[in-house]
Amino acid sequence: MKKITIAIDGFSSTGKSTVAKQIANHLGYVYVDSGAMYRAVTYYAMQQGFIDVNHFDIEGLVANLKTIDIRFKFNNKFGFAEVYLNDMNIENDIRTLEVSSFVSKVAEISEVRQKLVEQQKQLGKDGGVVMDGRDIGTVVFTDAELKLFMTASAETRAERRYSELIERGDAVTYEAVLKNVQERDYIDSHRKDSPLTKAKDAIQIDNSNMTLQEQFDKILELVNVTL
Ligand code: C5P
């Protein structure tokens, strides 16, 4: 059967990655979490002291981009690929609210985007890929056979993210998570390079009132029509 490319874009915490993983597993496709790549660069920038609450050395980070090696390795136990930075598993380290608070600033840098978009294109060059992010349908895979644009209210998204962080044992408040979601929405959709926007040929899905199962069924139906 023909293998297509599925591009899923949308605002923060719309549940893109959950459904993208489910669809990829169901179809036997590769799932790529492009947000994890921006988070990996951000984590690197924090570790190297290029970014903290008081300063952001963009030039320093850009000058060191070549030394950043990001890879995905499939974890059989969890059934999805985890992200590695220079051979170190950083899957858990990149999901903190601290990384979330800096990532949109890092994702505004064109040199960072160039590097990651090139790698994302390589990862999807043979098709059979589900990739989620902010610019997958508009920049990375403009020819994707199926493009989805996920939305949900900021409050619904913040509640979901808050529950995830609490479950991990992170000490966060709902208000701080909501603020972060709103800030990222703003920066992601107003930046100069590849702002978050719905591709003209993307199908919009508002999942505020959908269960995971309903969302999965709806997307699978769209996949079947496309195949
Ligand atoms: O998807 P996730 O919320 O993990 O993405 C983290 C951040 O990475 C986003 O808020 C956005 O700033 C950036 N991003 C991006 N382009 C992508 C994926 C993520 O700019 N394709």
From TrEMBL:
Signal peptide: none annotated. It is found in: Cytoplasm. Keywords: ATP-binding, Cytoplasm, Kinase, Nucleotide-binding, Transferase. Its EC number is 2.7.4.25. One of its GO terms (molecular function) is ATP binding. GO terms for cellular component: cytosol. It catalyses: dCMP + ATP = dCDP + ADP; CMP + ATP = CDP + ADP. Belongs to the cytidylate kinase family. Type 1 subfamily. It comes from Mariniflexile litorale. Residues 6-224 form the Cytidylate kinase domain. Its main location: cytoplasm. The lineage of its organism: Bacteria, Pseudomonadati, Bacteroidota, Flavobacteriia, Flavobacteriales. This is Cytidylate kinase.
